[in-house]
Write a structure and sequence with these properties.
By secondary structure, the protein is of the alpha+beta class. Helices cover 35% and strands 31% of the residues. It binds flavin-adenine dinucleotide (FAD).
Length: 380
């Protein structure tokens, strides 16, 4: 007999969502996470789509997530080129196009929700190796100097991509992203801005009274931006973004992340990666966690539909993979195409981008399609 029916590796937002969605079904369930209160200090802003809000509501965490800042409009433009588009929640018949939250707060809240999830055991360890097998899969756990292995019918890998790295398809974007909270003289009026520049997209998301900056650029420039004194940084931001939000007056601590696309390959019998462990995306369109939450939710649905002794068997895993194929492929293709099309300064492409944006702005069904795609993902 395996130790568990379902073992989840990683208690970030995606692993925690999977555990919360599977808990309470009478299964032997455990989640392994080495950190006490997950990355409280990680300041990255997360734009959650309305579809993710619906998942978090069902998991009972949404109402405890305050403060969240709704995005009512998204303004997309390109620097040095014509064409822009504005997406509007009311036009799309949605209460909001998205909600901006703090990653650290979301992750900590979801972890604390696990403390009261029925029948979910929390194991404070790091998984150092996984072994798939016909009857059970095993995980090697390490906490301090202690090491042991546990077995499960199904191991769900949600550790953000480190373990699933072997054999994964990766593409280094040669870009880094700098995040920080900024304050400007004009109020955001719940509008998010995405401005494409030749070095990468610059996004400003409404967050509380101020804005959250997500600025993609070359790795060298990202380092310089983090090291600049505050006044110099604010001037660079002003030059790159322009005056649409008045004058930038304050910036909080700046944090930089390297960017790569990582697509996990089949992890073997009885092992399934979800979230960033399955696909790590460029943050250009704020898709990664939204896609990961849909992975977690759909996986839990397939767990509910299969008897305990069928969990993790190839028939079960094929159902899950089939249901996620379109959404996953759509998310990977959409973000990768945006990065390739928009992160350059080739004149004909600049004109084509302008035409594309102008056309998108002028054709309501095209805008509706884009909003639905970003809200609920790609559906079959
Ligand atoms: C700057 C930036 C902005 C972003 N903005 C958005 C956005 O607006 N919208 C959006 O949807 N997405 C966004 N993303 C992407 C989003 O952050 C990720 O998709 C999301 O965090 C993935 O969640 P996860 O739970 O799969 O992985 P993670 O968040 O990486 O969590 C992994 C967990 O696994 C644990 N772990 C690690 N190794 C082990 C191990 N060996 N054993 C056990 N546990 C382990 C870690 O401690 C952690 O708790 C952004 C990303 C960046 C970098």
């Amino acid at each position: 007999m395996p130790d568990f029916d379902v073992l989840i590796v990683g208690g970030g937002p995606v692993g925690a969502a999977a555990a919360l969605a599977v808990a309470g079904r009478g299964l032997a369930l455990a989640l392994v996470e080495p950190r006490e209160a997950v990355m409280h200090a990680d300041p990255r802003p997360i734009a959650l789509a309305h579809g993710s809000r619906l998942i978090l509501e069902r998991l009972g965490v949404w109402e405890r997530l305050a403060p969240v800042t709704p995005i009512e409009r998204i303004h997309v433009s390109q620097r040095g080129g014509f064409g822009r588009v504005e997406l509007d929640a009311a036009e799309a018949g949605l209460p909001a196009l998205g909600y901006v939250v703090d990653y650290g707060r979301l992750a900590a809240l979801m972890r604390s929700a696990l403390d009261t999830a029925p029948g979910c055991r929390l194991i404070r360890s790091a998984v150092t190796a996984l072994q798939s097998g016909a009857e059970v899969a095993t995980a090697q756990l390490e906490a301090g100097s202690a090491s042991r292995s546990v077995s499960a019918r199904l191991i769900v890998v949600a550790e953000g991509g480190a373990l699933a790295g072997a054999g994964a398809r990766t593409k280094d974007y040669r870009q880094s992203v700098v995040t920080a909270r900024v304050v400007s003289t004009a109020t955001h009026r719940h509008t998010a801005y995405e401005r494409f520049t030749p070095e990468g997209p610059l996004a400003l998301l409404p967050m509380g009274e101020g804005m959250a900056l997500v600025w993609t650029t070359t790795p060298d420039r990202a380092q310089q931006l983090c090291e600049l004194p505050e006044a110099g940084f604010l001037q660079r931001l002003q030059d790159a973004f322009g005056g649409r939000l008045g004058t930038f007056t304050n910036v909080g601590p700046r944090v930089r992340y390297p960017l790569a696309l990582k697509v996990g390959v089949s992890a073997g019998l009885r092992v399934i990666p979800i979230g960033n462990a399955a696909q790590t995306l460029h943050p250009v369109a704020g898709q990664g966690l939204n896609l990961g939450l849909r992975d977690a939710w759909e996986l839990a649905q397939t767990v509910a539909e299969h008897p305990g002794d069928a969990l993790g068997a190839s028939a079960h895993l094929s159902v899950y993979r089939r249901r996620r194929r379109l959404d996953r492929g759509g998310g990977i293709g959409f973000t990768d195409t945006l990065v390739r099309l928009f992160s350059n300064d080739v004149a004909p492409l600049r004109v084509a981008r302008g035409l594309g944006l102008a056309l998108l702005g002028a054709v309501p069904p095209a805008k509706q399609f884009l909003v639905r795609r970003m809200t609920f993902g790609t559906r079959g």
